[in-house]
Amino acid sequence: MEIMDVKPELFGTEYNATRAAARRDGKAMPEKDVRARIQRLGLKEQAFRRFLADQIAVDEMGLEVMDHLMSRGSSSPTELAHEIDISTAAMSLVLQRLESAGHITRQRHPSDGRRLIVAATDDSVRLAYGHVLPLINGLEAVVASMDDDERAAASAFLDKVIAAYDDAMV
């Protein structure tokens, strides 16, 4: 969508075409325009998720499952479906695609043979972390460069941003 196609009246009185363009096209943003930076950060996060999904050859839902398995460990299909908030039938399809691509294994639970346990394969974990690690290291370097006051201010600010997202999903 070109910026000229946007209808400012749909966004209320706070709409700013310059901010909208800057956050999307990478041009310089006004020095103290925090809102544009939050928007750009959200867009960068979305772009990184698409990049990562492309690099490890999974769809968005597959990436969500892989993220869960890599950050929290193995899980049952039902637990994954509840965690990601999709039906168990939809989860079965996602798991079939991931298993066919070699990203996960499904094994019987060691103490309850009726249950399945899903785990990310070592090769897929290495592949994903190979792409995620530069981002993690970059963010760690940013945090390490901050003094205690900057960390406190950034933490308080980000807590408020997180709360705004939570409030918007009520």
Automatic annotation (TrEMBL):
Protein's UniProt name: MarR family transcriptional regulator
InterPro entries linked to this entry: HTH_MarR-typ (IPR000835), MarR/SlyA-like (IPR039422), Tscrpt_reg_MarR-type_CS (IPR023187), WH-like_DNA-bd_sf (IPR036388), WH_DNA-bd_sf (IPR036390)
Molecular function per GO: DNA binding; DNA-binding transcription factor activity
GO BP terms in the entry: response to stress
Top-level taxon of the source organism: Bacteria
Transcription in keyword set: yes
Keywords recorded for this protein, A-Z: DNA-binding, Transcription, Transcription regulation
Keyword Ion transport among UniProt keywords: no
Species whose genome carries this gene: Cryobacterium arcticum
Residue stretches making up the HTH marR-type domain: 7-163
